[in-house]
């Protein structure tokens, strides 16, 4: 699964001022990321505001993205939810043409037990022939996938190939790296600690920051994977303040503000998300100038 080594970007979904999907801007974003050297793209993960898109809109975005990417890089679809039956039906109906994997976040709000999380992912794994990447993001879901549950799923289902880990718990990560199958991929889902996770044995990141800084972030991750941490440290430190600003007033509001400054796409969001304040917007512009 070398295609998922390096930097994947959880793409934002560009919207026009009236809230409709901006497809010309989506083309521009895709080119911006591929030209910036990222290894793969994620369409309609949580950063893509998938919770606010209808089923029809998501289907159109997935089809459009696959056609425009045209296999230039690997492509992952974000498909998840807190209704297992509905999620399985969506995955079973998904047109896999052009896609290399599915990224599926652990169920939100319900706060299932570890057995419930296991059974949820078991149903997903059995519903598709595509590789499945788990996604642990307790800050959004209200519950965490325990290391034991991840390892259990990794050992029992061949098409569960990795996890996007955004728990921020190094205790969990220590256990996961110790116990996981050798070929099971651990991917950072937390931009600020991606360098540290690669140092522990991670294979890269699925990034928010990479939307705006694809070249800088993917170069830093490649240096980590090559073991050149001296150069990686310098790149990491140069982006610390910019990375912090991307999440200060919520994601993807921060990175959409940066993309607007860079001329890639607008910063329109769908409610209940709103734009960053003018003060944060100015700080983002300053950081973009500093980073170059």
Biggest sheet, spatial arrangement of strands? 1-2-3-4-5-6-7-8
The largest sheet, given as strand count, sense and whether it forms a barrel, is: 8 strands, parallel, barrel
Number of domains: 1
Shape descriptor reads globular
Question: What is the SS-derived class?
Answer: alpha/beta
Overall average residue pLDDT: 97
Pattern of helices and strands? EHEHEHEHEHHEHEHEHHHHH
Distance between the termini: 33 Å
Strand portion: 5-15%
Q: Tell me roughly what share of residues is in helical segments.
A: 40-55%
Q: Number of DSSP strands? A: 8
What is the CATH fold-level name?
Answer: TIM Barrel
Q: Architecture, CATH level 2? A: Alpha-Beta Barrel
Q: What is the highest CATH level, the class?
A: Alpha Beta
Rg from alpha-carbon coordinates:
18 Å
Q: Total helix count?
A: 13
Name the CATH homologous superfamily.
Aldolase class I
């Amino acid at each position: 699964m070398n295609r998922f080594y390096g930097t994947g970007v959880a793409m934002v979904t560009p919207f026009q001022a009236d809230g409709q999907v901006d497809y010309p801007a989506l083309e521009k974003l895709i080119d911006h990321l591929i030209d910036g050297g990222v290894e793969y793209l994620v369409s309609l993960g949580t950063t893509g505001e998938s919770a606010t898109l209808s089923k029809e809109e998501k289907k159109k975005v997935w089809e459009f993205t696959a056609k425009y990417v045209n296999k230039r890089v690997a492509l992952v679809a974000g498909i998840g939810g807190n209704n297992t039956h509905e999620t399985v039906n969506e995955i079973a109906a998904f047109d896999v043409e052009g896609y290399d994997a599915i990224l599926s976040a652990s169920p939100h709000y319900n706060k299932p037990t570890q057995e419930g999380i296991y059974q949820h992912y078991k149903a997903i794994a059995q519903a598709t022939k595509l590789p499945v990447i788990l996604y642990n993001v307790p800050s959004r879901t209200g519950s965490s996938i325990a290391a034991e549950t991840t390892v259990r799923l990794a050992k029992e289902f061949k098409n569960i190939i990795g996890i996007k880990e955004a728990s921020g718990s190094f205790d969990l990560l220590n256990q996961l790296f110790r116990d996981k199958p050798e070929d099971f991929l651990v991917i950072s889902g937390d931009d600020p600690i991606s360098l540290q996770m690669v140092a522990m044995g991670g294979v890269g990141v699925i990034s928010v920051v990479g939307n705006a800084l694809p070249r800088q972030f993917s170069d830093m991750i490649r240096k980590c994977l090559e073991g050149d941490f001296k150069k990686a440290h310098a790149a990491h430190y140069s982006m610390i303040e910019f990375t912090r600003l991307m999440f200060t007033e919520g994601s993807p509001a921060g990175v959409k503000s940066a993309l607007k400054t860079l001329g890639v796409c607008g910063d329109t969001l769908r409610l209940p998300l709103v734009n960053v304040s003018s003060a944060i917007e100015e700080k983002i512009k300053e950081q973009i100038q500093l980073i170059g």
